[in-house]
Design a protein that fits this description.
Strand content: 25-35%
Shape: globular
Oligomer: single chain
Distance between the termini: 12 Å
Number of strands: 6
Number of helices: 5
Structural class: alpha/beta
């Protein structure tokens, strides 16, 4: 989990270099809280989706593996309702990732091929 927390923190800081919108990053048990100018967002690392509130403004950070992909597919109906959720599937050892926003993805993707499409994206980087 520590590798993923460090990875997401570094990723967000690097992404913010030009815009300089991050005001503070705080460490919690299994997440980091990022405070921006007008809002904050919690990035939860390796969550059990059954145990978190999927109605909040959150980022979800997973190791890129089948078990985590299966969690997302199982909870897809709930995930796609929240336009603020962003999910990162990461292999921190080789610094690779794929990112999905279920709300947006559900508007442009064919629901009948959801599982196949997500699996193809997951296979684009090495599993961990």
């Amino acid at each position: 989990m520590d590798k993923l927390k460090l990875w997401i923190k570094t990723y967000l800081e690097n992404k913010d270099i030009i815009n300089n919108e991050i005001k503070k990053i705080s460490d919690k048990d299994n997440s980091i809280i990022v405070e921006y100018e007008n809002y904050s967002k919690e990035f939860i690392v390796e969550p059990n989706l059954e145990k978190i509130d999927l109605n909040k403004n959150i980022g979800i950070v997973f190791m890129n593996n089948k078990e985590n992909l299966d969690q997302v597919i199982k909870k897809w109906t709930q995930l796609k309702k929240n336009e603020n959720i962003i999910i990162y599937f990461v292999n921190p050892e080789i610094d690779q990732k794929w990112i999905i926003k279920p709300y947006i993805h559900s508007k442009i993707a064919d629901q009948s091929t959801l599982k196949k499409g997500l699996k193809a994206m997951a296979e684009s980087i090495q599993p961990c």
